[in-house]
């Protein structure tokens, strides 16, 4: 895997975040959350900066990043799409909705479209079970989504 060259301005921003948290290793999750906000994802190079700044083992940082599903080591699309697969959504057809997103975008779960516009993921529960099945695109929530609605949802972001 090729090494990623991080923008120096973003590295400085990340170092400021570490400073704001007093380089406290107990703040690792908060620092990683901020880092993902800065870079959009957490490649090895970002994890190395965090490990160095907080004086923690890189393996520990990697363990935290891979343990929590919120963190991602691959870039997300400009419009990240998440399909809820919690019980209520699943029994009301979320799998068919997910299949339609995968078909129309020609990606698998966890992948980003070649143009970088969309990424598709599934998650366990959005907490809007009364609207099942639920899809989020960025911060926007779509309820009672049927496979035939997917084309119209995507059209909003084209």
UniProtKB/TrEMBL annotation:
UniProt keywords (A-Z) are: 2Fe-2S, Iron, Iron-sulfur, Metal-binding
The protein's matches in Gene3D superfamilies, at most eight in alphabetical order, are given as: Glutaredoxin, NADH-quinone oxidoreductase subunit E
Query: At the top level of its lineage, which domain of life is listed?
Result: Bacteria
Entry cofactors: [2Fe-2S] cluster
Q: Which residues bind [2Fe-2S] cluster?
A: 84, 89, 125, 129
Family as reported in the entry's similarity comment = Belongs to the complex I 24 kDa subunit family.
Know the name of this protein? Answer: NAD(P)H-dependent oxidoreductase subunit E
| Lineage of origin | Bacteria, Pseudomonadati, Bacteroidota, Bacteroidia, Marinilabiliales
């Amino acid at each position: 895997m090729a090494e990623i060259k991080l923008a120096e301005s973003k590295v400085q921003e990340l170092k400021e975040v570490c400073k704001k948290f007093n380089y406290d290793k107990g703040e690792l999750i908060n620092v990683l959350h901020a880092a993902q906000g800065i870079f959009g994802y957490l490649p090895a190079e970002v994890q190395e900066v965090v490990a160095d700044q907080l004086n923690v083992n890189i393996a520990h940082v990697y363990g935290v990043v891979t343990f929590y599903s919120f963190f991602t080591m691959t870039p997300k699309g400009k419009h990240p799409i998440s399909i809820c697969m919690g019980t209520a959504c699943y029994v009301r057809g979320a799998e068919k909705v997910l299949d339609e997103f995968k078909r129309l975008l020609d990606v698998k779960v966890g992948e980003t479209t070649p143009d970088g516009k969309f990424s598709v993921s599934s998650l366990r529960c959005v907490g809007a079970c009364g609207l099942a099945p639920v899809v989020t695109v960025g911060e926007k929530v779509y309820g009672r989504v049927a496979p035939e609605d997917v084309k119209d949802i995507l059209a909003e972001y084209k």
